[in-house]
Amino acid sequence: MQFKIRAIVRWFLFLMLLSSLSQQAFARDPLRVSLPVVPVPDGASWSWVGKKMAYNGMPTSIKIFEYRGNSEDVKSFYKDYWRSKGNGQTQEKDFGLNTILSHDLRGVYTTVQYRMESGLVKGKVVVTESPGRVTLTTKSEIPVPPGAEVASRVESMDGGRRTESVTLESHKSVNFNRGYYESQMDFDGWSLVYETETFDSSVQHYQKGSDLLQVTVKEMNGIDVNRSLILVHWTK
Question: Cβ atoms within 10 A of the Cβ of 48, count?
Answer without folding.
Answer: 11
